[in-house]
From TrEMBL:
Domain spans labelled Fe-containing alcohol dehydrogenase-like C-terminal: 205-397
Name of the featured protein: Iron-containing alcohol dehydrogenase
Segments passing through the bilayer: none
Family to which this protein belongs: Belongs to the iron-containing alcohol dehydrogenase family.
Cofactor requirement: Fe cation
Keywords for the protein's UniProt record, in alphabetical order: NAD, Oxidoreductase
Record-linked InterPro entries: ADH_Fe/GldA, ADH_Fe_C, ADH_Fe_CS, Alcohol_dehydrogenase_Fe
Cell inner membrane keyword on record: no
Length: 419
């Protein structure tokens, strides 16, 4: 069982050894976004397409960047239609704007949606095809064209998209998510500027931070991890566990926000090489079906999935716990892993993130499981393969109380009938 999936993972591991993962040049620190604007101008770029979302544009947060670019004589075209979970139609609209703008480069400013959308727009524009044709795991091997230089400034510490080779898009018609995976879409240069994340609301900080934590943990336990990705994932995990609670309760702490951005990018570099796992596979389905924000979906799933993975990755989880100062040396690997999982569960609770999915419907569970398995198996280096029954039991525990009670009632009724 799962022989083909295992074989595909082995082949992927071999292929990845020969794949170059570009690492963008990162400018780090408060006001580094302004320094990035200087660098763009110094590169001789005179027409720039700024890709962002409407809220961010109207908030005035980008005004210093716009002023800096204009001062250098860089003309700006703005595409600010980005919305959460960007789909193909949005990408095509962005491509149209890009064509008319005659831009020489692109600057993406925003959360994961803005960066993924910008990556997809640049790649679609360069390859003159529908974005759906660019999605898929092995397509980077095809002779795709390089797009315009892409610069990125994340305004959330979560997706790590500024350093990854992936752009996740929603296939709205099929109610699923697809990814463009290609080293050519990695941004050329990035600014990790904590000043731009200071006003991120507490709940958004919590959910995006849990996304970054999921990247770090899933990359760490992946069978495709390498010593380099392990190092990055462990550092990211430690930083996130330390700084996320402070970032949520004291959002104006500049140094904390800076550490969060660093951790998020490190986690991004780890998972772009080692991949993610079941948490993401299920979270993508919840996002596509119910529009549950990605970070929230990950936070809902993370502890339960880790419980199921533990028997096959206790040493990895224990190493994460040890590096983060959780548990003690007298504990077995299993005990220390359990401590980490309990810590993650408590963290989620302290961040006021719910532990049930209100939108989740019992009738959708088979479809969610089928699609999550299709995404994960043979693509992600999961430590062990879940059975359908295990996945069903896990999702049932996330059903809102009313449906759990309904199911108990149904169970009691059927037991009574059969008795
Ligand atoms: Fe993610």
């Amino acid at each position: 069982m799962h022989l083909i999936s295992r074989l595909r993972i082995v082949l992927t591991r071999i292929a990845l050894k020969h794949l170059q993962f570009p690492v963008p040049l990162c400018l780090v620190g408060p006001d580094s976004a302004l320094a990035l604007c200087d660098t763009i101008a110094q590169a001789g770029i005179r027409r720039l397409l700024l890709i962002t979302d409407g809220f961010l544009l109207q908030s005035g947060l980008l005004q210093p960047l716009q002023a800096q670019l204009l001062q250098h004589g860089v003309e700006l075209e703005i595409f600010s239609d980005v919305e959460p979970d960007p789909g193909y139609e949005l990408v095509l609209r962005g491509v149209e704007v890009m064509e008319h703008s005659q831009a020489e480069a692109v600057l993406a400013v925003g959360g994961g949606s803005s960066m993924d959308c910008a990556k997809a727009i640049v790649h679609t524009h360069a390859n003159r095809c529908h974005p759906a044709k660019l999605t898929g795991l092995w397509l980077y091997a095809l002779p795709r064209r390089h797009g315009l230089p892409l610069y990125a400034v994340p305004t959330t510490a979560g997706t790590g998209s500024e350093v990854t080779i992936a752009a996740v898009l929603s296939d709205k018609e099929a109610q699923t998510k697809k990814a463009i995976i290609d080293p050519k879409i990695t941004p050329k240069m990035v600014a990790l500027d904590a000043r731009l994340t200071l006003n991120l609301p507490a709940f958004l900080t919590a959910c995006t931070g849990m996304d970054a934590l999921t990247h770090a943990i899933e990359a760490s336990i992946s069978t495709m991890a390498t010593p380099e990705t392990d190092q990055m994932a462990r550092t990211a995990c430690k930083l996130l566990l330390q700084h996320l609670p402070v970032a949520v309760t004291q959002g104006q702490q500049l140094q904390t926000r800076q550490q969060m951005l660093l951790a998020s990018s490190l986690a991004g570099m780890a998972f772009t090489r080692a991949g993610v796992g079941y948490v993401h596979a299920f979270a993508h389905q919840l996002g596509a079906l119910y529009q549950i924000p990605h970070g929230l979906a990950n936070a809902l799933l993370l502890p339960d999935v880790l419980e199921l993975m533990l028997p096959a990755c206790s040493r990895k989880l224990a190493a994460l716990a040890e590096n983060s100062g959780i548990g003690d040396a007298k504990m077995s690997a299993e005990q220390r892993s359990q401590c980490l999982i309990i810590h993650v569960r408590q963290l989620r609770c302290s961040l006021q993130i719910p532990s049930q999915i209100q939108q989740l419907c019992r009738e959708d569970l088979p479809q969610i499981i089928r699609r999550a398995f299709a995404e994960a198996h043979g693509t992600y280096g999961v430590p062990r393969y879940l059975t359908y029954a295990e996945a069903l039991q896990m999702l049932e525990s996330l059903l809102p109380d009313r449906q759990q009670h309904q199911s108990e009632d149904r169970f009691s009724a059927s037991s009574a009938n059969s008795a």
